[in-house]
Design brief:
- The longest helix of chain A is centred in the first third of the chain and has 18 residues.
- Chain A is an alpha+beta fold.
- Chain A is globular, with a radius of gyration of 20 Å.
- In chain A, the strands form 2 sheets. In chain A, strands 8-10-7-11-9-12-13 form a 7-stranded mixed β-sheet, with helices on both faces. Chain A has a 6-stranded mixed β-sheet with strand order 1-2-3-6-4-5, covered by helices on one side.
- Chain A starts with 12 loop residues before the first helix and ends in a 9-residue tail after the last strand.
- In chain A, helix 3 packs parallel to helix 4.
- The first copy, chain A, has 3 domains: about 30 residues, no CATH class; about 120 residues, 60s Ribosomal Protein L30, Chain: A (2-Layer Sandwich), CATH 3.30.1330.10; about 150 residues, Phosphoribosyl-aminoimidazole Synthetase, Chain A, domain 2 (Alpha-Beta Complex).
- At the A-B interface, helix 1, helix 2, strand 3, strand 4 and helix 4 of A face helix 1, helix 2, strand 3, strand 4 and helix 4 of B.
């Protein structure tokens, strides 16, 4: 393995940003000659095509840190446990697969009680049970803050496997459910107001819907950092462009109402808020008839450029997306 | 999945202790009916026997937390990266397997620079390259402290698979290399003195040796929490007892010298210090001729009881082991 280090300066990570960091890491990891590695860094999951196996193996991991991903003043331990599993299953769903096995790592601070830990595990187990995931091992240790890492192994049939990089010019860009609902709750907590916090407290993923659409779509990704960021990932990985119609982006009445009550624009939550765990997928026009369920067409894949179009047809640059280091 | 919650009181985790917590979690996880799960919680790795697969799949994860598992004043980022991979490969080695693929999760504090992150990854990649592991994905996020989680997937042939629970009465208890060397370095740093800190700063694992002995041993475990704790795990999982001869426990001259310079007993580091990442294995007398290399016979498996015998043959209770919550 030869190292390729592109970035070597005194920049702090907060200046480099998360996507810069991921690019830097991806550049360092020049894989061994590995016949069984189908896709490494750069998608929702790494993908293995193991010899003798009929299905592909999916691997994903996500770390949740107290103060950054949850707040003990707002969320109870059951909700934190539930969310920690959902964010990972959402990555498996985005590949078209099914979750199978999970490993839990937790750093517990000194003042955590046994009932707290029990509730945390119960939340994890409820989410796992809901989606057919078996939690089979892990690591517990001590830390100043509560930190949870989940690693999942999933499986996917060849005809169901969806990558970010398979979008084609002419594909329609679709979004499941509605966006901005998680950030709406976060904004309410931050402002100390009451309102629509249900989804923020107990987000869900779209595993069943993903399984229905997977055989028919080209590219798919889950919405963890907002629509702008996810559509950009699809476009960059696929070597194409995208245009999204702002007026089509689905935002629920509850989320709109939260925006009005806080005097904030819910569109920015949909574009850049994240943690909605909905799916964004691109589908050829001719496959559209095979897809039914709760989704909205919001744009299309073009040759190049990333655009957001307003009601009057005015084109803006599509940008945004939650950055963990900004 | 039905929950079984045995412990439900206001005890803090620091009172319950790590093994109590693991028992509590293991009790909660009543697995789905799962034909492919060979061994869940309770060994160095979880073990899958997937349909169509010729080998078993090994899964393990370990979390390292700044201040608990490493100290930025003592270790450089390369060393932290190296160690984070070694501790996980050691778990794969203890099962008799080979590491294949790894997922990295890291929470970076604000003040981490890009060169720091680069060195951290270089340490990880060096350890991975050394032992044939391919790092294929991960998650980076923000946190107040540096936290690293590694999840590994390994493979093992049926004839190489070693579990903690397969020790048999009459087996000889063996230890690779020497013990207490990691804790020696930690004690030097804690006291602000110079000396033998090499192994603490760059620990190693015994993958090659594990592969040589695996077909011949009954039970095997790696030494992450000290000999007393690891022998207890083997005995409990196997439903047997063990007696260890104190005078046989291998401690190097460098470690003994460190003990003298600090006026501390290195035997307690060997018994309870941990992080040596040596192997403890039990082997039937008749298989001993098939094993060669750097190891020491320190005791034997008996029907019941856990004993440490001193030079005069006096029996003490075998106890100790590093507890992350004590």
């Amino acid at each position: 393995m030869k190292l390729r280090v592109d970035i070597m300066n005194e920049k702090k990570l907060s200046e480099l940003g998360e996507s810069g960091l991921i690019k830097s890491i991806a550049g360092m990891l020049e894989y061994f000659e590995d016949d069984e590695l189908f896709k490494g860094v750069g998608d929702d999951c790494a993908v293995l095509k193991e010899k003798d196996a009929k299905e592909y193996t999916l691997l994903t991991t996500d770390m949740l840190v107290e103060g950054d991903h949850f707040d003990l003043d707002w969320q109870d331990p059951w909700q934190i446990g539930w969310k920690s599993i959902i964010v990972n299953i959402s990555d498996i769903a985005a590949m078209g697969g099914l979750p199978r096995w999970g490993l839990i790592s937790i750093a517990f601070p000194d003042d955590i009680t046994v009932p707290f830990a029990d509730e945390l595990f119960k939340g994890m187990i409820s989410a796992s049970e809901r989606y057919g995931l078996n939690l089979i091992g892990g690591d517990t240790t001590h830390g100043d803050n509560l930190v949870i890492n989940i690693a999942l192994i999933g499986k996917v049939e060849e005809s169901y496997l969806c990558l970010r990089g398979d979008a084609e010019v002419g594909d329609l860009i679709c979004v499941s459910g509605d966006l901005g609902k998680s950030w709406a709750g976060l904004e309410l907590f931050r402002s100390g107001k009451k309102g629509y916090t249900d989804y923020y407290l107990k987000p869900d993923c779209r595993l069943e819907f993903a399984r229905k659409v997977a055989p028919h779509v080209n590219a798919m990704i889950d919405v963890s950092d907002g629509l702008a960021s996810e559509v950009t990932h699809i476009a960059e990985e696929s070597g194409v462009g995208a245009e999204v119609e702002k007026s089509k982006i689905p935002i629920s009445e509850k989320t709109l109402k939260t925006g009005r009550s806080l005097n904030k624009d819910p569109m920015s939550w949909a574009l850049s808020g994240g943690e909605d765990f909905e799916l964004i997928f691109t589908v050829p026009q001719k496959e559209l008839k095979n897809i039914d369920g709760d989704f909205t067409i919001v744009g299309r894949i073009i040759q190049k450029g990333l655009y957001l179009m307003d009601e009057k047809g005015k084109k803006m640059k599509l940008e945004g997306g939650y950055d963990h280091f900004s």
